[in-house]
């Protein structure tokens, strides 16, 4: 419709005016002349306004035709692949076509420049118009319409190179985001879905499943009084009523809007029906494109829909406490998979949700375990969002650098198109660039190394606990050139990426189960029976603490120290999980060390003087 309206305005302003008051249809003798020999006093550059209106109308129409065609071609192509080869190839094709959809407007403008150039050549340059002959056209002379053609060609080439640069940037960013964050975002959304279903337990009408659980002494956590059935029954019920009312109001409004549209359609006739049809098709196309773009992992708010996951550690602890109190059966101390079943469609789905909380695969979930998992999800969501924002900022910087290179290439090409003395320009540019390499050469090298380190190596993300040269840091932010790290004492360290790229970096968050070695010195007269007694006592402790430790213990005698009358022994603390939450790691280690001290005392194993334990992690 915009194309039709625009064409009408252009033709009325230029075409009809020239046809009515300017075009000369006859020669000096009064004989009719052919269209190619028409001339007019109403002209721009000796080209009649009618000719201008025809070209502008055709170019204007080509713009909207190209916009519409290129918007439906990806969907048609993807559907054809799906019908011919199956849904898998349809999805794969959709991933590649997403690049096209993201750059849809830029590609449309590029194609429009190309078509406008072809139209100008075929409509203005090639035909032997009389108004051109009146200019005294000479094949060896360049006239203004030749320069217009060169300008259109330069616009096309420049836009094509610009689209190529944007495509390279999009490919780098998309592949990086998929490799780095796709699985983490998927897991966060899965966790959010589980929390949404379990949140039903916070309403007063909770499914009963106490009969499926063994009885025992109940030790529920104290409720925060905010979200538990006892603390927020009225609030939950009110929220439910408000939600139902909102849904009802929305459905009523939607029904009324549908009725209004139907009434308008009955009245629509002629061109109105055509306009409605085109508008509807365009809206469907835009909706499809929007849905496809949501699959591209470039959105800094990719987890904004995961609203059930708390935004702070305090809220996470409160939600975990309330969920545990709402889900745990009467007389039980832990949650089992049967407690999840009433809130999921099948037992299999309930087991999958249960495993998200049961990190140590013990078959039950303790209050502390649930609190730790929900807190981890909250921290993970925050870290992902901050990482994506930082990386997007780095991608923008990369885009600017590539854009500067493309602009320089476009400058050279345009100079060649207009036959400008490029050599003299390049001499001047070289005179500036060569000395600059001595000033900026190191910066350019450092920037290139940082880009490789950030996008290719990618050793860490925001929120990760890492160790550099044996010192632990938490990653606070990332950019093209620097990474901001925070030490355990709270001090911020600004580390150049070019320096970090040459360091050995331990990433704790990405690690699996971790362990550490503790070296102790025991008395030289310690017997094998005493060591066996120590091992039995520690295995009993580890079985009782199976949620936190692997049940494995051994004492390895590393060295006999005759001068100190001692045996240097090594024991290994096998943690379940990594040390990303350093506070939990310290608490687990303290419990192990106290248990080891008590076991040594009970096994009557003595220690030589000044035998402080040593530790080494791995």
UniProtKB/TrEMBL annotation:
Keywords: Calcium, Membrane, Transmembrane, Transmembrane helix. Residues 205-232 are annotated as: Disordered. One of its GO terms (biological process) is intracellular calcium ion homeostasis. Coiled coil: none annotated. GO terms for molecular function: calcium channel activity; calcium ion binding. Residues 214-229 have a biased composition (Polar residues). InterPro entries: EF-hand-dom_pair (IPR011992), EF_Hand_1_Ca_BS (IPR018247), EF_hand_dom (IPR002048), LSM_dom_sf (IPR010920), MscS_beta-dom_sf (IPR023408), MscS_channel_2nd (IPR006685), Msy1/2-like (IPR058650). It holds the Pfam family MS_channel_2nd. GO terms for cellular component: membrane. It comes from the Eukaryota. Residues 345-380 form the EF-hand domain. It is found in: Membrane. The chain crosses the membrane at residues 111-131, 151-177, 398-419, 425-444, 451-473. This is EF-hand domain-containing protein.
